[in-house]
Design brief:
Blueprint: H1 2-8, E1 13-17, E2 20-25, E3 28-31, E4 38-41, E5 56-58, E6 70-72, E7 76-77, E8 93-100, E9 106-110, E10 116-117, E11 125-130, E12 135-140, E13 143-148, E14 151-155, E15 158-160, E16 165-166, E17 172-173, E18 180-182, E19 203-211
Parallel strand pairs: 7-15
Antiparallel strand pairs: 1-2, 3-4, 5-6, 8-9, 8-11, 8-19, 9-10, 11-12, 12-13, 13-14, 16-17, 18-19
């Protein structure tokens, strides 16, 4: 799912017949007419995926489903990552995750899937303090949030949330690092993935909590 989202620019929906993978749905907003307008990647309007959470089978083309096949399991468990050691109060309750660029100005926000977006309404996140209220987990309407393969992801397929912390300025930290990375600043309706390591991602950003 992460690879498909990166290539498309937004979440996609997987279609299954029973437990057999059958199709992928890409969602777009049309800016202009169907004939001449621009098709811009868009997040699904509600739950569209029809595949089960576990044991998805991908039979070879022309197969009836018997014999050899690939099984796809979309359930993700977050890697433990560096252990936060913050002694500052954790984020708590409901709020938004605003993105700060190099000039310390707010430039968009993190939306429900965990991507950076500059258009539309910011998503509301729920922060749940743990460890004597010094660290916390995050959840959006898409599901629990975790750092998977170095990328911030919020999804119902995440079974174990990552543990985050905060600095004195209310900045989100992962492994005590408040700097995150993206390929570029998103423009218009395009979204950008948010990563914890700089390799291949030229844009630096920070994420600030704003309580609801």
């Amino acid at each position: 799912m992460t690879v498909l989202r990166q290539k498309h620019g937004a979440d996609v929906s997987l279609g299954c017949k029973g437990n057999k993978f059958d199709e992928v749905w890409y969602h777009f907003d049309v800016r202009g007419s169907i004939q001449t307008g621009d098709f811009v990647a868009s997040i699904p309007d509600g739950g569209k995926t029809t595949c089960p959470p576990l044991g998805i089978r991908y039979p070879p083309k022309g197969s009836s489903g018997g014999g050899s096949h690939t099984t796809y399991n979309p359930t993700h468990t977050a890697a433990p990552g560096p252990k936060p050691t913050s002694t500052l109060p954790a984020f708590s309750g409901r709020g938004t995750l605003n993105v700060l660029t190099n000039d310390d100005r707010v430039h968009g926000c993190i939306i429900g899937s965990g991507t950076w977006y500059v258009s539309g309404t910011c998503a509301k996140f729920t922060a749940t303090p743990i460890d004597n209220a010094k660290t916390f987990t995050l959840r959006s309407n898409k599901g629990e949030c975790a750092v998977l393969d170095g990328e911030l992801t919020c999804s119902r397929s995440v079974r174990k949330s990552s543990v985050f912390s905060a600095d004195a300025g209310g900045l989100l930290a992962f492994g005590n690092n408040v700097t995150f990375f993206a390929d570029s600043v998103p423009r218009g309706w395009k979204q950008q993935g948010v990563f914890t390591e700089p390799e291949g991602h030229a844009t630096r950003l920070r994420i600030r909590w704003e309580g609801a």
